[in-house]
Design brief:
With 342 residues, this protein is an alpha/beta fold. It is built from eleven helices and eleven strands. The protein has an eight-stranded parallel barrel, surrounded by six helices. The chain has a three-stranded antiparallel beta sheet with strand order 8-11-10. Helix 1 links the parallel strand 1 and strand 2. The longest helix is centred in the last third of the chain and has 22 residues. The protein is globular.
Amino acid sequence: MVSPNVALTTDAYVPILKSKRAELDAIGGCTNDRLVPLLEVIDPVGAAAAISRVWQGPNQIWVQALNAEGQDDSDFAPVVDDLFAALRHEAVTSVPVITATEEPLTLGVVASVVRTDSRGVVIRLDVEDLIDEAINMATEVESTVASLGLARSEVDIVVDAGLLSGSVAIQAAVAGQAVHALPALNDWRSVVVAFSAFPSAIGDVAPRESVTAIARADASAFMTVRPGIGRPVVFADYAIGVPTYGGAPFTPIPNMRYTSGTDWFVHRAKERKAPSPQYRALASGIVSAPYYSGASFSIADQQISDIADGSAGPGNATTHLRIGMSRHIHVVLERLATLGEP
């Protein structure tokens, strides 16, 4: 069980997810007690009810309210206050996620949440800010912690390399430099390092009517940087999502994303029309593939099998995003528990 106020162990996993239906349903179907989702909330109204539908009880969940519309601090701070009050009411063991440069009123609200809930805070930092010599991010972090009235041992740090590009070696080197730029590296409750590697547009890498293997470079970058950090660190990624926002202007060509130990296999259909038989064919393709783990491996694998043999409906794009997310989360947790790597 990942209770609040304890350091995460190295077999914990922090997927960074958007608080949309598919992602929420994916974590709701996971019973592993080493899962600590970090949810980005861009529409706080009703978010607490949606989160509580899939996540209640003593296991912690990290929640970051994003000011996507650029509201004034005086308008946004009450929204953050309402969100965490609603999460508290819904019996969700939430921990607020913030940056080190929050506006004063919002930071004051978070300080109140921290005092009320007594679970500390998560500070999420972009690697580029940590290594930018023009930004004294170490001082910003220390100032934020002091403003919250917390000790470093009550703070989890997420070093986010999700927007980095380049080879695995380059991403690992930059992320390592950023981690070592943290003040008092060994004093924080947990240090989490996040990478992202899934393509933002499947059509750019996977042709129609194809099966395309995409290397899980985020996991490789983490394994490359981990030995040089000098303290336990926890793996985070964006699963089969991306750090940015923005949706396709039309329904996508049916596709299914299947995570293995080292790759994602993207099974992509031919066209947008008549998606149902295409989803069944894609599921059948996964079930017959050598990398299929079998229906008993996870809920997602059972669902893929059911779609393939016709015992369940074919689903739609949201269904298959949920299945893909669920499968990915299960694979990462299984590998961390058995192999010590994501």
